[in-house]
Predict the 3D structure of the following.
Amino acid sequence: MALKIKSDNIVKKGEIISLVKRKLGAGRRLAALLNRPKRKGAGVNLWKIGKNSKQGDVVAVPGKVLSAGELSHSVTVAAFAFSAGAKQKLEKAGCKCIALSQLGEKELKAAKIII
Protein backbone atom coordinates (compact mmCIF):
# COMPACT_ATOMS: atom_id res chain seq x y z
CA MET A 1 0.00 0.00 0.00
CA ALA A 2 1.35 3.40 -0.96
CA LEU A 3 1.95 6.01 1.70
CA LYS A 4 0.23 9.33 0.97
CA ILE A 5 2.52 12.17 2.01
CA LYS A 6 0.56 14.76 3.97
CA SER A 7 3.32 17.20 4.89
CA ASP A 8 3.90 20.53 3.15
CA ASN A 9 7.43 20.74 4.55
CA ILE A 10 9.87 20.01 1.71
CA VAL A 11 12.60 18.69 4.01
CA LYS A 12 10.15 16.37 5.77
CA LYS A 13 8.85 15.11 2.40
CA GLY A 14 12.41 14.27 1.35
CA GLU A 15 13.03 12.33 4.56
CA ILE A 16 9.78 10.37 4.14
CA ILE A 17 10.51 9.52 0.50
CA SER A 18 14.06 8.37 1.25
CA LEU A 19 12.81 6.09 4.06
CA VAL A 20 10.00 4.59 1.95
CA LYS A 21 12.29 3.88 -1.04
CA ARG A 22 14.39 1.51 1.04
CA LYS A 23 11.45 -0.91 1.39
CA LEU A 24 12.49 -2.10 4.83
CA GLY A 25 10.11 -2.58 7.75
CA ALA A 26 11.75 -0.08 10.11
CA GLY A 27 12.08 2.50 7.34
CA ARG A 28 8.41 2.27 6.42
CA ARG A 29 7.39 2.52 10.09
CA LEU A 30 9.57 5.60 10.60
CA ALA A 31 8.13 7.18 7.44
CA ALA A 32 4.57 6.59 8.67
CA LEU A 33 5.36 8.14 12.07
CA LEU A 34 7.13 11.09 10.45
CA ASN A 35 4.14 11.65 8.16
CA ARG A 36 1.86 12.50 11.10
CA PRO A 37 0.82 16.12 11.75
CA LYS A 38 3.28 18.28 13.70
CA ARG A 39 0.97 18.54 16.72
CA LYS A 40 1.05 14.73 17.03
CA GLY A 41 4.78 14.51 16.33
CA ALA A 42 7.29 12.96 18.65
CA GLY A 43 9.40 15.16 20.90
CA VAL A 44 11.76 12.98 22.91
CA ASN A 45 13.87 14.14 25.84
CA LEU A 46 17.40 12.85 26.49
CA TRP A 47 16.44 11.22 29.79
CA LYS A 48 13.93 9.01 27.95
CA ILE A 49 16.56 7.95 25.39
CA GLY A 50 18.92 7.12 28.26
CA LYS A 51 16.26 5.13 30.10
CA ASN A 52 15.18 3.03 27.09
CA SER A 53 18.54 2.34 25.45
CA LYS A 54 21.82 0.59 26.18
CA GLN A 55 25.42 1.23 25.15
CA GLY A 56 25.82 0.94 21.37
CA ASP A 57 22.11 0.95 20.46
CA VAL A 58 20.68 2.80 17.47
CA VAL A 59 17.79 5.07 18.49
CA ALA A 60 15.48 6.48 15.79
CA VAL A 61 13.27 9.46 16.67
CA PRO A 62 10.63 10.43 14.08
CA GLY A 63 10.54 13.98 15.44
CA LYS A 64 12.71 16.29 17.51
CA VAL A 65 15.21 15.37 20.23
CA LEU A 66 14.94 17.77 23.19
CA SER A 67 17.57 18.55 25.82
CA ALA A 68 15.85 17.73 29.14
CA GLY A 69 17.95 15.29 31.15
CA GLU A 70 21.35 13.69 30.66
CA LEU A 71 22.70 10.70 28.79
CA SER A 72 25.29 8.49 30.51
CA HIS A 73 26.15 6.09 27.69
CA SER A 74 27.06 6.31 24.02
CA VAL A 75 24.38 5.61 21.39
CA THR A 76 23.68 6.55 17.79
CA VAL A 77 20.68 8.87 17.59
CA ALA A 78 18.91 9.37 14.26
CA ALA A 79 16.22 12.06 14.28
CA PHE A 80 14.37 14.50 12.05
CA ALA A 81 15.62 17.44 14.17
CA PHE A 82 17.76 18.15 17.24
CA SER A 83 17.51 21.12 19.59
CA ALA A 84 20.80 22.99 20.02
CA GLY A 85 21.08 21.95 23.67
CA ALA A 86 20.36 18.30 22.92
CA LYS A 87 22.97 18.15 20.16
CA GLN A 88 25.54 19.69 22.50
CA LYS A 89 24.76 17.21 25.31
CA LEU A 90 24.81 14.23 22.92
CA GLU A 91 28.22 15.20 21.52
CA LYS A 92 29.52 15.68 25.09
CA ALA A 93 28.34 12.14 25.96
CA GLY A 94 30.15 10.71 22.91
CA CYS A 95 26.99 9.96 20.94
CA LYS A 96 26.62 10.13 17.19
CA CYS A 97 23.85 12.44 15.84
CA ILE A 98 22.58 11.72 12.33
CA ALA A 99 19.52 12.50 10.20
CA LEU A 100 16.91 9.79 9.63
CA SER A 101 17.78 9.67 5.93
CA GLN A 102 21.39 8.81 6.82
CA LEU A 103 20.40 5.57 8.54
CA GLY A 104 22.02 2.82 6.53
CA GLU A 105 20.60 -0.50 5.43
CA LYS A 106 22.59 -2.22 8.18
CA GLU A 107 20.98 -0.13 10.95
CA LEU A 108 17.45 -0.47 9.55
CA LYS A 109 17.72 -4.27 9.37
CA ALA A 110 19.25 -4.61 12.84
CA ALA A 111 17.18 -5.85 15.74
CA LYS A 112 18.88 -3.27 17.98
CA ILE A 113 17.07 -0.26 16.50
CA ILE A 114 14.77 1.49 18.97
CA ILE A 115 11.92 3.66 17.64
The chain has one domain: 10-114. DSSP finds five helices and five strands in the chain. The beta strands are 42-45, 58-66, 76-82, 96-99, 113-114. The chain has a mean pLDDT of 79.
